[in-house]
Amino acid sequence: MNSPILLQPDETFILNVGPQHPATHGVLRVKMEMNGEYIVNAETVIGYIHRMHEKMGELKTYPQFLMNLSRMDYLGALGYSHGHVLLVEKASGIVVPERAEYIRAIMVELNRIASHLFWFGAFVMDLGGFSPLMYALQDREHILDMLEAVTGSRLTYCYFRFGGLYNDVDDDFITAARQFIPRMRKSMKKYHKLVTGNIIFRKRLEGIAPLSKEMCRKYGASSAVARGSGINFDVRKNEPYSVYPEFDFDVPVYHECDSLARYMVRMDEIEQSLRIVEQGLDKLPGGPIMPDKKPKLIKPPVGDYYQAVETARGSFGIRLVSDGGKNPYRLKLRSPTYSNMHLFDEACRGMMIMDALAFMGSLDLVIPEIDR
Amino acid sequence: MVAYFTEIFTGLMSLFIGMGITFKEFFKPTVTVSYPYETLTMSARYRGHIELVENEEGNSQCVVCGLCEKACPSDCITLAGEKPEGGKKKVLTKYMLDFTKCSLCGSCVESCSFGAITFSKEYNLASTKKEDFYFDLLKRLEERNT
Amino acid sequence: MRLTLLNVIVAVVLAIAFAALNAAYLVWAERRGAARIQRRPGPNINGPFGLLQPPLDGIKLMAKQLTIPGGADKIMFITAPVLAMFPAIMSFVTIPFSDTIVAKNMSVGVLMIFAFASMGSMSLLFAGWSSRNKYSMMSSVRAVSQAVAYEIPMLITTITVVMIAGSTDLMEIVHQQSRSILHWNIFPLLGNSHNLLMPFSFLIFFICTLAETNRAPFDLGEAESELVAGFHTEYGSMGFGLFFMGEYANIVIGSCMTTILFLGGWSCPFGLFPGVWWFILKLYLLIATFIWIRWTFPRTTIYGLLNLSWKILIPLSLFNLLFTAGLIKVF
Ligand code: SF4
Ligand code: SF4
Predict the structure, then answer these.
(1) Which element (helix H / strand E) includes A15?
(2) Under 8 Å CB-to-CB from C202, ≥6 apart: which residues?
(3) Based on the domain organization, do B58 and B27 belong to the same domain?
(4) Number of domains in chain A
(5) Range in B10-19, C41-50, C62-71, C96-105 the model is least confident about
(6) I want to staple A115 with a disulfide (CB 3.0 to 4.6 A). Which of A312, B28, C112, C169 is the partner?
(7) Within a domain: residue B133?
(8) CATH code at B101?
(9) Could you tell me if A195 lies within 8 Å of chain C, comparing CB atoms?
(10) Residue A144 lies in a domain
(11) Which ligand 1 atom sits nearest the alpha carbon of residue B104?
(12) Does residue B37 form part of some domain?
């Protein structure tokens, strides 16, 4: 990368990227102080799509809040619901049948693949290549079809219940999922040939936006942002929950710290998720999907509970303070993108706008999830 | 110097590989559905807005217990019923769904232990007026019967 | 052909018609081609194969209001789209499509086309500067530095060809390549040049054409994910339409030049039935490649683009120029 010519402060200008801008994929606004094409200072302004999910959590009963979680991150919705149900089950001591947990894990992983696929397409589109988005959407469509056949919706699922699931998977789903795995592997080869190997693509990402380990720690970054900077942290491995300890999968970690490393982590995660789905389908036990005694009224005992899960966008934490009532006393949602995004302000200083927006793409921002 | 030329060469090759892939895709059949001209059937579990279920006589099975109203997180359901003279059970007189607020969560359907409501398969919902989404489900039921 | 006033008028009208028709249907071809690559049908509703789409789009654009943003430099703002279209049309006048189909053949045809081509970046500069939009301004600055960087290797490569042909007359250049495919300037075996580096020259010229016409992967001027729409952000209606037509007209000219300089113009690969159809075939094959490239690759960065030009294309084309000069001296 080249370095900018130093200018006087009054020779800079302010560029308002967003809230309606093709690169921000939502209503994020970035106020950039520019020196020609170079960014002197950037300030992300959030809150354009704030919907008070945390407050809603306090006002609604536990089952009523279920559907809110999938509205947070519309691309990887199931991961967030998973965190919520796990937390409430932990708090009120509900035991989940094994089959339900397996199905949950399979669904979450499928959803993660769908989310990463969409990110992949959108990221390449940020870099100016349009066709990979269409190919990624084709593959994602298979997942959405499968999920729709089981859950009834395509994007904002409301599938997990306290204690189990809304309904069981059928044989069609299992066949479809089994067929999907080899197809996805074939597509991954195509993506690697078409995009990863491409010299233009590599030139745009290699060595761009290095994020040091310290910086990732300082901002609490997770997901591919941290793993691309050599931090081996995945909630599924480090604080195992659900049935993840039963699965054999790796956590891809890259030490290059640049945008390409973040890209590679996510691409490798798709493969790992496929492995989990494969094993989950093999091991899927029989039995009920809801506990025999359906919990009628959910009133967790007084206390403070926390549950972290690894969603498609990083480690999602959810904290519940219960006063023993029908509604939570406080429900705090720690959204991973919120932390990942705040890296942007510091990291993009001195970058050119093209690189900065490519870097923003590599953070995988979903704006409704930041604003909650 | 060697590195300079190998980079040019590998770079060019990667471009040709990419072009080869799009070339192959060019001759593959299209995968899209031309939506208004072709439609897909919705899957069996598709969740559209809710709809009243009819019994053999073509009336609603609802017993006006109000559980769905209470379960709804978004307060979309308003219902009323009255006991007809001489009758034992309450009869539904009004069932309004405010679809502008509905989040299609399914709490209402799950909470109803009489199987009186179900999801419809409707997805062609678009309008410029808000009022078009205040559904009178009872009227829809009658219209379906006639 | 004797030059009369009537001749010129007919030629210009035909050139405008050709440019406009090409622009309209290249948009259609691009949309259909992109759709095929992405496995969608593309525009297929209006008319058979969606062939009525371009005229309808044109009507839509014409029916819209041309808004001029407040604080914009009015005169420059309005001149810019005209300037985008005008040089393209003028260039068509000198391009020989076959032995007989040429409006006005000039002995300095190559020079004239390059002179007009460099006017194109003026229009981008005008548009970006006068729009009073920061994105547009950044885009126009990019476009100018890009034009400067890519005209140099393009001209050097052209000089190589001119040296081989010994003439700047486009007709003459084609005549020298007309015997068979092995006489084309891209294939160095027979004919005037025995230069084994000519395929690379062709590649350099082609890349420069992509960059000159602001096509992907060098479409930094209108990089839609960064600069919204670049220099034409503020243009609506036919102002936008003219930019669009100008862009496609430039692609046609770039492909025409590539055909003439490297692919033997209207000559047949086997020396049979030379004629305008060969020219058209080669021209549209090249344009199809343009479209194919656009829908395959991501965009380069501005410094990547300049590095490519100054560090790779210019040294290579200069080397090629010297090499060719040496060969001509020896043989
Ligand atoms: S689906 Fe959910 S939001 Fe909609 S009416 Fe039923 S309970 Fe209310
Ligand atoms: S829960 Fe069922 S029976 Fe009760 S009011 Fe609602 S629809 Fe009627």
Answers:
(1) strand A13-17
(2) C185, C186, C258, C262
(3) no
(4) 1
(5) C96-105
(6) A312
(7) yes
(8) 3.30.70.3270
(9) yes
(10) yes
(11) 1
(12) no
C: neighbours with 3+ CB pairs under 8 Å?
Answer: A, B
> Do B19 and B54 belong to one domain?
no
- Is the minimum CB–CB distance between C60 and chain B shorter than 8 Å? no
Same domain as B62, residue B16: no
Is residue A272 a contact partner of residue A250, using CB atoms and an 8 Å limit?
Answer: yes
Could you read off the pLDDT of C42-84 as tens digits, one per residue? 888 887 888 888 888 888 888 888 888 877 778 888 888 888 8
Task: Look up residue C112 and give its two tokens.
Answer: 């004239």
Do residues B19 and B55 both lie within one domain?
Answer: no
In a domain, A39, yes or no: yes
pLDDT for B120 equals: 82
Burial class (CB in 10 A: 0-12, 13-18, 19+), B36: exposed
User: What's A237's domain CATH number?
Assistant: 1.10.645.10
- At residue A3 the predicted structure's pLDDT band, cuts being 50, 70 and 90, is low
- The answer as to whether B38 is a domain residue is no
CB contact under 8 A, C39 and B8: no
Is pTM, for the whole model, over 0.80? yes
Q: How many structural domains are present in chain B?
A: 2
Average pLDDT over residues A48-62: 86
- Cross-chain residue pair A197–B14, CB shorter than 8 Å: yes
pLDDT at A239 over 80: yes
- CA C176 to CA C331: how far, in whole Å? 17
Q: Is the same domain home to B61 and B26?
A: no
Q: Write out pLDDT tens, residues A256-309.
A: 888 888 888 998 899 989 988 888 888 888 888 888 777 677 788 888 889 888
Query: Is A1 a domain residue?
Result: no
Beta bridge partners of A321: A304, A330
User: Is position A94 within any domain?
Assistant: yes
Q: Where are the beta strands (DSSP E) in chain B?
A: 50-52, 77-82, 91-98, 117-119, 134-136
Burial pattern B80-97, b for ≥16 Cβ within 10 A else e, equals: ebeeeeeeeebebeebbb
Beta carbon of B19 within 6 Å of any ligand 1 atom = no
Domain residue limits at B116: 50-145
Examine residue B106 and state whether it is found in any structural domain, yes or no.
yes
C39 touches chain A (CB under 8 A): yes
Q: What is the best residue among B69, B70, B103 to mutate for testing ligand 1's pocket, by most ligand atoms within 8 Å of CB? A: B103
What would the pLDDT profile of B26-85 be if each residue is shown by its tens digit? 888 888 888 888 888 888 788 888 888 877 777 777 788 888 888 888 888 888 777 777
Half-sphere exposure of A141 (CA within 13 A, CB side): 9
Provide the ipTM.
Answer: 0.81
